[in-house]
Amino acid sequence: MSGMEMDKLASDYLLTNEEAADIALEYGVVPVIPDDKGPEIYPRITPNDMSMHPLRPPVVTIMGHVDHGKTTLLDTLRSSSITASEAGGITQHIGAFSVQLDGGENITFLDTPGHAAFSAMRARGANATDIVVLVVAADDGVMPQTKEAIQHALDADVPIIVAINKCDKAGVDPSQIKEELLQYGIQTEDLGGDIQAVEISALKGTGVDELSENIVTLAEVLDLRAEVDIPVHATVIESQVEKGHGNIASVLVKRGTLNIGDIIIAGTAWCKVRNMTDDRGNSVSSVGPAGAARVTGWKEIPQAGDMVLQAESEAQAKSVVNHRVEKRKNKSQLASISSMNDKRRETHARENIERAEEKAHARAVREYYQGIRSSYPDPLEKKDGSEEGVDNPEANKPALLLPIIVKGDVSGTVEAVEAALGRLPNKKIKPVVLNTGVGPVSESDVAIASSSEQCVIIAFNVKADKKTQNVAKRQKVQIMSSRIIYKLLEDVEQLMLDRLPSVFVDDLQGEAVVQQIFDITMKGNKTASIAGSRVTSGLLTKSAKTSVLRNDKVLYTGEISSFKNVKSDIFEASKGQEFGIAFDGFEDLRQGDVIQSFRQKELPKKLE
What we know:
Layout: H1 17-26, E1 59-64, H2 70-78, E2 95-100, E3 106-111, H3 119-127, E4 131-137, H4 144-155, E5 160-165, H5 174-182, E6 196-199, H6 208-222, E7 233-242, E8 246-255, E9 258-259, E10 263-266, E11 269-277, E12 286-287, E13 292-298, E14 307-311, H7 314-369, H8 393-396, E15 400-408, H9 411-422, E16 429-438, H10 443-450, E17 456-460, H11 466-475, E18 478-482, H12 485-499, E19 504-521, E20 527-541, E21 545-550, E22 553-558, E23 560-565, E24 568-569, E25 572-574, E26 578-583, E27 594-602
Parallel strand pairs: 1-3, 1-4, 4-5, 5-6, 15-16, 15-17, 17-18
Antiparallel strand pairs: 2-3, 7-8, 7-14, 8-13, 9-12, 10-11, 10-14, 11-13, 19-20, 19-27, 20-25, 20-26, 21-22, 21-27, 23-24, 23-26
Helix pairs in contact: 3-4, 10-11
């Protein structure tokens, strides 16, 4: 084993196929390793000479910061009303739209969300595109999602056209935006670079024609061509479950032609194309390169970003999908084994160090009693768990959990919401996603939620029917509906705060000084000491927690048994007022003692 670099393995180490095979070979046994090669399909190799193939429309992705006018620009280009259908005017998921310009040229646009939660969608948009139009608001400048969009475009090696929007506003200076973009590697033509910049007003349509001309000109320079007579090669832009239509995926064709009746595969889902509609809802029988369509007929929901390839038959599609599912399962098992082995190595290493320290300490003790050492060894330090939380009650104290089920209209939205929840502060309370799904909230979602204590269902851009709502009400399951991501995150954070336990501190509300001690006779000839006192600051109340101090040392903390002014019972005494006071179980009061009255103050809750 040492010759095979396995001398450090423990008895509970789980072997991988390769390690088990090496051991078998070492002992002269021929291992039989399952062949991972199974049925698979791949896209055709792109020919070196594309000049014989027809030109295709460019695929353009509009990117930028939230509310900088991306969807309004696309709305103007299409001369329709996309923005009105988007919650709060903010695009919630990628939409693919075909636009025919006045000159007859076609352009396919992808509109990506601007909110921080949708980073993965912007990355998909950049990777599926030929040209990126970077929209920057002249009155707002370069913002966080602007920087991120620039990085996505540069990483994908995609040419950029800058559209400086809202130039119709008074007091804006587009030249400042161009100078600001220099910091992020975007050098426009008028500053000596090769990136086109167009000043526009998406709302009024100013400069939009010039932007369209620049896109067409750049597309001509790029000489975009694609084969039309090969098996289709496409990309899933979005996927969802739609009532009455079942599983639907928005598909962007890259090469080939997609026809009704074709058998296609995307990830671990396959489909016999039953129906296709364009972005205006019109049925189409075929879609060529750079065309986008909503495809129905999927057996399962494909994931956004999956490559779509055409199969020869249903039998081949099923075979390939089954192989991919098995491959994914094996990969997951290998990752799990690797993680378990890493944890066990860490545990064994820590235990070995502790055993070595204990042996060294025991040897030092023996040497002391044998006269070899002059002093008794220091006791072993107890691990305080400052690094790993061992033996540290606060470190070991588990965070509260907020179980969540996420339902959304499309898979990309669900993915983004789940990722955004994972980035919320979670030291005190941690949101845990139990389950996700595409489509409306169902009774089975409510059943899953009711089995977990205080589980919440997030319904993003989807609804629950009346029957499901009634079931949720009976089961006391909360359904949080939202259409705008940042408002959803605010609501979840507030819910997390509400779930945190209240923390109270003692807040000093008043002080008094004992002036004189009186002994009075009570019922049954018992005597009691009453402290005649005067309030020096604030307010003393009978119901409050009270402390007695002498020379700044607390002698007593407890409740007031008697609180009087002359002979009348009082409930509070303010500054300058005199009163007599006695305490439960404490009579050692002296002149000059300080009496402090506290009220419970709830600290504001905050997430960490």
